[in-house]
Amino acid sequence: MAEKIRLQKMIADCGIASRRKAEQLIAEGKVRVNGKVAQIGDKVDPKNDKVTVGSKKLVPQNNRKVYIMLHKPRGFVTTMDDELGRKCVAELVANVEQRVFPVGRLDRDSEGLLLMTNDGEFANYISHPRSHVSKTYRVTVRQQVTEDMLAKLSEGLMIDGQMTLPADVNLIVKEENRNVMQITLYEGRNRQIRKMCEELGLEVIRLKRIAIGNVKLGMLKQGDWRDLNDDELRSLTASAQISAAKQRRAQKKKK
């Protein structure tokens, strides 16, 4: 008897999306198994069942895992297919041997470091809220940034009805019409930095992610990608473990 696996695992293994995103696709009714709309919890036989996501039939890949970093330019959406016909990051990694998908997100108007992989377990581990892998950004605003603003950004702000976690914030350029901050977050909420700055009346004119954990974008050119090396992969895993431990200790102190 053929061994069956969870549907979201097969979707992730085929490089379509992370497991969490796969579950969302299933819940939205976009996944079919042998012609029938799939349900959360379904299991499939990758070799014999016909699985489609939208109009695409899933084809199991070989076991070689791929981990890359991409320098995403502004104007590209972080998705492998866009129903509105916008430019998406899939165009930038079309020459990657395996089909990869983004780990987390980077909004259309932002640029910088984006991890991509075909390893669903890795993507889930790095992007899961419990991991709290740090992400560092260079944030350019038009207005003058005061010490009070820096303190509020560091300590946390109320956005979307929830306080942000403490962040590391430094002012690195202070000019009359241009201030640049370096902000390190330990959570991954949607458009978080833009919303935090908006809360303080700051207009973000450029937002660039320069690091995830200890993995730095470096001199990689816009639109280019490269494989992560073994040290970088180990570093990301270690960062997830360390950050999660710090957050657990912080939560215990609050209690």
The secondary-structure element order is: EHHEEEEEEEEHEHEEEEHEEEH
Helix content, binned percent: 25-40%
Number of helices: 6
Low-confidence stretches: none
Percent of residues in β-strands: 25-35%
Major beta sheet summary:
9 strands, mixed
Q: Globular, elongated, flat, extended or rod-shaped: what is the shape? A: elongated
Q: Class by helix and strand content? A: alpha+beta
Q: What is the overall pLDDT average?
A: 89
Extended strand count: 17
User: Which radius of gyration do the C-alpha atoms yield?
Assistant: 20 Å
Structure characterization notes:
This protein has 255 residues and is α+β, with helices and mostly antiparallel strands. 26% of the residues lie in helices and 27% in strands. It contains 6 helices and 17 strands. Strands 7, 8, 9, 10, 13, 14, 15, 16 and 17 form a 9-stranded mixed beta sheet that branches. A 4-stranded antiparallel beta sheet has the order 3-2-5-6. A two-stranded antiparallel sheet has the order 1-4. Helix 1 packs across helix 2. The longest helix is centred in the last third of the chain and has 25 residues, at 230-254. It is elongated.
